[in-house]
Structure formats: structure tokens, C-alpha cells
Specification:
With 566 residues, the protein is α/β, with parallel strands linked by helices. It has 3 domains: 200 residues, P-loop containing nucleotide triphosphate hydrolases (Rossmann fold, 3-Layer(aba) Sandwich); 193 residues, P-loop containing nucleotide triphosphate hydrolases (Rossmann fold), CATH 3.40.50.300; 106 residues, Winged helix-like DNA-binding domain superfamily/Winged helix DNA-binding domain (Arc Repressor Mutant, subunit A, Orthogonal Bundle). Helix 18 packs across helix 19. The protein is globular, with a radius of gyration of 27 Å. The N terminus and C terminus are likely disordered. Bound molecules: adenosine-5'-diphosphate.
Length: 566
Amino acid sequence: MVVTPMTAVAPWAMVDLLSTLQQCFGHTSFRAGQEDLVRSVLDGHDVLAVMPTGSGKSLGFQLPALVLPGTTLVVSPLISLMKDQVDELNGRGIRAAALHSMLPSDAKHEALTAARQGDLRLLYVAPERFASDYFARLLRDLPIARFVVDEAHCVSDWGHDFRPDYRRLRTAAAECRRSDGQTGRPPLAAFTATATPEVRDDIVDLLGLVNPRVLVSGFDRPNIHLQIRPVSGDLEKLRLLPQLVAGRRSLVYAATRRSAEEAAETLRETGLQAGAYHAGLRDAERSRVQDAFASGALRVVCATNAFGMGIDRPDVEAVIHVAIPGSLEAYYQEIGRAGRDGRQATATLLWNYRDVKTRQYLIDHGREELPGRAVAPLDPAEVARRKELDHKKLRRMAAYANAAGCLRATILRYFGDPAAREPCEACGNCDRRAPLDAAARLRVRKILSGIARAGERYGRRKVAAMLVGHVEDLPEPLTRLSTTGLLREEDPQSVEQWIDATCAAGLVRTSADKYQTLSLTPLGREVMAGRVEDVAMAVPVARRRRVRRRTSPFRGAFYAFARRRG
Ligand code: ADP
């Protein structure tokens, strides 16, 4: 392990970071999380920084590079990204260069000489450079301040941008010489916008980060109001769609090509300009829709997940998912296309458990592919591993759709962002938080009694089944409690939702193990005993009965809707 001596005060500990930010980068203040990041990199820790695209991650290595002795080496996967950063830095008077296949050899030579003399603050390199022994030898001569890996998720094959060359970086870093004269490799700092726990773990393992500081920030999008709308089926989705769009510039995401088409048609028939976009359309049609949306001529696009890359309209006001997406990461990325201009925007998920089944089918039998992406043949074990991961991601997404607590906090906690404050006061669940009336309080007390009587040894499914009196498959002790059948007029799913609501309200907690057994909190005991009556929670939305579908769900629904409205 590399240890920075604590006795000597490093010269950069005295640097006024804010003045450096202002003078060298022209920004007035740090953004949330940036200063912490800069300090962690300066302090010589290995760092993993997870921040969304556009949040200002680069400053996390660019500012330290100005202050530290030696050159900061930055591995970056795209020549265009390198060029942009190098041009911007040079424009600010900061000496930086990039080594990649397009660079003429005299420019390469000049960059390396400057680096050897310690004159170059940042040297960007493409990952494939490390395949060359010649380059590895050159590298050993350079005094390196920090070894930075940008777009670090490329090291993980869980991510969508796996780059085999990234697997060499651990060894490459180990061969670098530190600019501060200490032994061992230079501190390593990895940067990514991908926050999935699997990818994060891979980055730490495969790049060999030692006791890394993991910094996650910037995922909160407070101007996007989050909403889950339970629906009984496709008919209700279509009835709601025009109201949810409400004439706003919107993206509507669907799980299948057919439902994207039908959603667009439904909106067009209500007089809205709406286009469909999916991988099944001809290139020319896809470009037409994309361009029309980008220019503002088309206000609504109904799409599968094939749409979104390169969509950069800042004024999208609403994102509506007519079916649950495959993962919370995909969902957050898709709704993140709303409100980029900072104005109020909404993200609504129409939620019906049957859509999870559709997604499960897509996972098991192929998926909506991205246009132009080659699908490499995979060995069967790999296919099975990926399917299992996709099912896991889908379960997490479904858990979000069912969440009883603050939706924003649920997402931010999942990404590990410490900004998660509950309640956020800007999501459907927080909006619904209200003091309980006498009937609801009685129901909650019955549930709390059931959990207490069950000996705090069972999870929500068994407790709910016990309370509604569905005793057939229950362990014998649960079949003869004083609370067995206490809520026999209710259905088990609704009781489970109420249990979730009591958890979110802090009356009940679940164990951290895989059994997730329920137990009462001290507040829960007070409420059960009737000593505390002042309880606020998001009351679950009553489930609606399923409406029978016509043969073509969306068109049928539209005509039914149109007829009702006359
Ligand atoms: P990322 O690498 O996270 O995608 P960048 O580092 O490229 O993002 O930064 C995105 C934009 O934000 C850049 O134009 C950058 O100049 C700007 N930026 C970064 N930090 C600040 C700051 N503290 N104040 C204002 N603008 C900033």
C-alpha cells in the first residue's frame, strides 16, 4: 500500500484551491462534491469518483495536475474527448498534450520531451498505447503525479462500453514512476458516470485501487418531479397519455416497437405532433424523427430505448414511461433528459406488474437492440450470466416502482449519492405524505400488531398472508395467532403495500440479511400501543381492477376514450 507521510506538510496543502479555480479555470465556485474530489486526489488517495456526465468531473484531476509536481497521465478512450480537453486547457494557458494514433510523430516527440522535463501538466493517452512495449519504456522515464483513468467503466464487462485495453491499466500504472520520489506507483484516480454497484466493484478490483475513496455526487435532479402512476392496463395508459403530455415537449418511452408506434398514433389522433422512433424503422425515418425533435418541429417522440443518444434538447418538459424500463440506471438516464435547462419538469412511470413480465420475456428471448451496434456472439455461460444480471436489475427497478418511501431518496440511495434526503418534497410519494385518519391509523395498528405477534421473525409476504388469513402455505405458528385473519377483508398485495408504507414512515424496519424480517421501531411500538397518534405517511394508492382489453390495445383504448369524451 502507498502511504503518504503525515509528518511533512505537502506544499499543495497550503494552496488556495478556490483562487486556483477562479484564476486558472474561470469558475466562481466549486460545484457540489468537486472540492472534496479535488482534495482527495491531492491528498494522494486512490479515488473512484462517480458523477454524471457534464457535472464537472474533469476538474477533479485537472486542478490537482496544476498544483502537483510532475505530469498527470490521463487515460481517455476517445480521441475527440482528448482533443477537446487539451484544446480547452491550452486555451487557458495550461500545458497539456494528447498521445494518440492521429498525432504526427514530431508532436509526439515534443509532448514526451516536455513531460520528461516536468513541463507538461497533463498528458492524455489512448488505452491502446499501453499495448506497445516502446511506450511502456518511455513511460517509465516520466515523473507521474497521478494516474487518471477517465471513463473507468470501460474496464468492466458489466458496462456497455467494455474496452479490453483498459485491463492493461493496472499493470501499466504499477510500472509508472512517482513524481514525488516515493516508492510504489503513483496514486490512481478513476472517473465514471456509471454508478451501478457491479461496475463500481469491477473498477476497484480490475484497476487495483487500494483503499479507495469512493465519491459519488451530482445525481440529484431536483427540478424533475418524480411520479409513479399505478395503472390497471394498456387501456388506462392510453387514456392517461394525452393528459400527461398536456401539450408539453415530451419523450414517451415504451418497452416494444409496437407500443411506441401505438402511443405515437394515439397522441397524433388527439391533435399532438408525435413521432415514433425505434430500431425497426428505416434509417431515413429515424433520422427524420430525430432531426425534427432536435429542431423543435416535433414536440413528442414515442420511442424504445433506442432513442436518446445525442438528444440534447435542454427544454424537454416531460418524460413518460408507458412501461417499466429494464433497470434503474436506464430509467434515471432516460428521465435525466428532462429539464436540462433547470426548469420544472416531470417524470412519470406508468406502473403495472404485467409489464415486468414483458421485460422478463425480452431478457430471456432477445431485446430491443441499438441501431448500428454489432452483436458479438457470446458463449452460453456468458449469456446466462448476463441474463441473470438483467433479471436482477429488473427486480431493482420493480422495487422502485413499488417503493413506499421518497422516490428521489430511493434512487439516490441506490446510486450511493449522499444527497439522498428523505422526504424530498418533490415526488409523488412525498406529495402523498399526509396525517393518517382514524381508519387508516387503525389499519396500521393492526399491521404493527401482526408484526409484533409474528415474533419479528418473518418477512412481509408471510406477515401479509397471516393478516389476511391465507394460512395454507404458512409456517404453523403463524396460523393460530390472535392477529391471523385480522385483515381478512383485504387482499395480500394491498397489505404488503401498507407494510412498505409503514417501513418508509419509520414505524417498521427490515433486517439487512436476505430474509428481510420485519420488526417494529421504537416509534412503531408507540403507534401500535396508541400512545402516538400523530403519524404521517404516504398512503398506498388503491389498486384498480383490470379493464378488459380490445384486440389492439392502444387503438381500441383510444376509440373507447374518444367515445367517452364524445
Ligand atoms: P464531465 O467530465 O463530468 O462530463 P466536464 O468536466 O467536461 O464534465 O465539465 C462540464 C462543463 O462544466 C464544462 O464546460 C466545465 O467547464 C464546466 N464546469 C466544471 N466545473 C465547473 C464549476 N465549478 N463552475 C462552473 N462550470 C464548471
